[in-house]
Amino acid sequence: MWSRQLNGVLKNVPKIGSLRTTATAVPGEPKGPNIVTAVPGPASKKLIADLNTINQSGSVQLFADYDKSIGNYLIDVDGNVFLDAFTQISSIPIGYNHPELLKVFHEDHKLKALVNRPALGVYPGKDWPEKLRNVLLSVSPGLPQVMTMMCGSCSNENAYKALFISYRAKERGENVDFSELENTSCMVNKPPGSPNLTLLSFHGAFHGRTMGTLATTHSKAIHKLDVPSLDWPIAHFPRYKYPLEENVRENQAEDQKCLAEVEDLIEKYNKKGTYVAGIVVEPIQSEGGDNEASPEFFQELQRIAKKHRAGLLIDEVQTGAGATGKMWCHEYFNLESPPDIVTFSKKMLTGGFFHTLDMRPKHPYRIFNTWLGDPGKLFLLEAVVKVIKQQNLLEQVQKTGNRLKAGLLDLEKQHSNLLNSTRGRGSFLSVNTTDHGLRDKILEKLKQKGVIAGGCGDHAIRLRPSLVFQEQHADIFLDKFSQVLNDVK
Amino acid sequence: MWSRQLNGVLKNVPKIGSLRTTATAVPGEPKGPNIVTAVPGPASKKLIADLNTINQSGSVQLFADYDKSIGNYLIDVDGNVFLDAFTQISSIPIGYNHPELLKVFHEDHKLKALVNRPALGVYPGKDWPEKLRNVLLSVSPGLPQVMTMMCGSCSNENAYKALFISYRAKERGENVDFSELENTSCMVNKPPGSPNLTLLSFHGAFHGRTMGTLATTHSKAIHKLDVPSLDWPIAHFPRYKYPLEENVRENQAEDQKCLAEVEDLIEKYNKKGTYVAGIVVEPIQSEGGDNEASPEFFQELQRIAKKHRAGLLIDEVQTGAGATGKMWCHEYFNLESPPDIVTFSKKMLTGGFFHTLDMRPKHPYRIFNTWLGDPGKLFLLEAVVKVIKQQNLLEQVQKTGNRLKAGLLDLEKQHSNLLNSTRGRGSFLSVNTTDHGLRDKILEKLKQKGVIAGGCGDHAIRLRPSLVFQEQHADIFLDKFSQVLNDVK
Predict the structure, then answer these.
(1) Reported ipTM
(2) B63 to chain A, minimum CA–CA distance in Å?
(3) Membrane-spanning regions, if any (chains A, B) (predicted)?
């Protein structure tokens, strides 16, 4: 067992099984993973072959049984029980089949709101403003306005439009109407109506896969190949040396280098008339490899944005909703004012974005589509937010995260030929392996032992457990991880 | 009453109220509209003011009570009862609170599929292939493959990517891998990895509001202003003279002119190296003004697409799911083979697209996102498809549509100074008014009389009733419309 092998900070933690399940766990969880077939098992294999006749399904790993999955445990169609530290690409907030979620639609009013999905921008239901206020704005990172959307890509796409609209409104001047030439030229995709504006993004970023967001995504070639794109500025995002406390000066220099490039690029693009209307950035580059940057980096980034009248959009689609131990990861950065826009989706269950009054278009029908979100998702989120608050889940995430991080650091010390650069906040954690092949091998072996984790970037392992992942789940994960590392070393 | 005023085809139809409610109606509908306040009423006004503190809500018309709304009747928070011939921008398939929809999530398995929303591209639930086959492919317009998505824009965005990917795969040659230069250049948005490909769209088209789809949308300036766009080819879509039977030669010439422009544009764009990978078109341009084109136009468009190796995408987001009296409007066109891609959303409740095997990417993770749809929506669609089939709703739509169209033609004859160009298929119908202001005035007066209809283009009135809109509902609509026309004439 890993607890026998580890020294240091975790020497005195109780053994697996001796921890009582606390109030934050979903009742009815199994005691641990249990693997009864190779993964994928025969039933999954059959279904994968079937699905593959209907569409390109090469990404499917297994078929799950969502009737049986519970809490932090995903159960597949072959009866394999997995501890899930990846949670549907980071999108399950409080575990599978949480009783508070299962009962939401027992309420007739909520079921009807789900079934009669309205065009929220035209005929919303009677409790829509109250739900936006009491559910979404109750967890807003200091921003007074919120729009709901369908998914992460569509949240960013619409937030990008808000950045462009606000930038042009400022250029045009308050209360100045669209010119006739703007009205006609935009209809054929030409300036000045369709202006030569740009957004600055970062190498390694992931903001989505629709064409606007894809122009700001630079994580993997397979996401981008063959799709036409836009000549927009792309700066380098800091790549730190770990452990942070031993590399302070180098990492500060890295911050400065990247920030200088940001400012250079803005000046260069502005000079050629392709003005930078906004900077879009993740608080931790997730798909791109869990790349962190310091609070100072983000503070200075915001100053640069303000100086050049570009909006600052922080994309919290993956980092948001509590995974880092704060509701929003950028709350760690102590920015001098909130960002202009914060986008969300995944664990928030609904897409959308918070924004300043400056980012609110003067005219209706500009940030608009048929559905503009889904009341059914907001009712589910209401239950999630209630559970987060009542059960102090952010505190739980910090406790679990501390345990997990200490364990990862310990394993990194024991296996310095395999692992390095343990990092992250809350239970939003990752560790680098020494190469891509090794990373994939470790993830595969973990899966065969009943633990689902994720990969990101070229050679990182990322953990994205739910907010009800507790210390005892961390111990199980660390134990299995330790077994796999001994196996591959 | 209109039935006393009208001559011709409708002389012998039974009066309102004398028709029995048939099996296709939702039980419990009121007998007709009932307006008790100005619209919006005081309760709606208060909620609009409240919502407006949270986001830009200038598009909101009223607040609805979805607990009380039923069948074809939308009931608002002031107790006003509207006959709904617009159905949430054409997105309610079988009326409000249909009993078959209300019972879907009483089934534990379906409720759990809704609550545990998976990453469908990685860990789908056990019945996912069966549901794709028995629900979606059971209504496919001859296409063997289907992908699910979240909404109309995201369905088109992803379908556009499929067009680009397939075009480049053919250019590159079967089994030829991405070059090193493609892999690196795409990461910074540059060719050859991000190639200079284009899509041809039509003036007046609407395909969505995200950046890729917005580049192919040309319906209203307010949708496009301030958002950067792409230099892609835009051809004219036929604008017919009505009645069609009296303008055959002119309309054929219009087809030829538009088709010649399509071919010219493709040749011009191909010549300058910005190859046209696809043509995207609505079977009836909906937001742009309900502009129809003939089957011959679409047949020839498909031939041009094939000749130039461009994919043909038919966007049935608004026209699909039975509104025209066939499941898919393009089934009226007798194309020599199915289109390469057909996109859907709205009344289908889930977004997505059907496609040929040619449009299926060879590699996984190319048409991909976290959720890739929502099993909960597919369960609702399953109930809708069952009701459509069991109750022969396509036949009902044709019957209702015949009644509505005959009535509109009659009113057009009586009010030729106000109305012209009645057109459409099934109950997907529209009529032009003589100008924009008149159109808006008529829609407003209809609303104050308890009928919700929609506007589209500059001066068209469009009807988008649900599939359970019956002859008696048509009669109520025509009666109110007649009253309004007498009022404004």
Answers:
(1) 0.94
(2) 5
(3) none
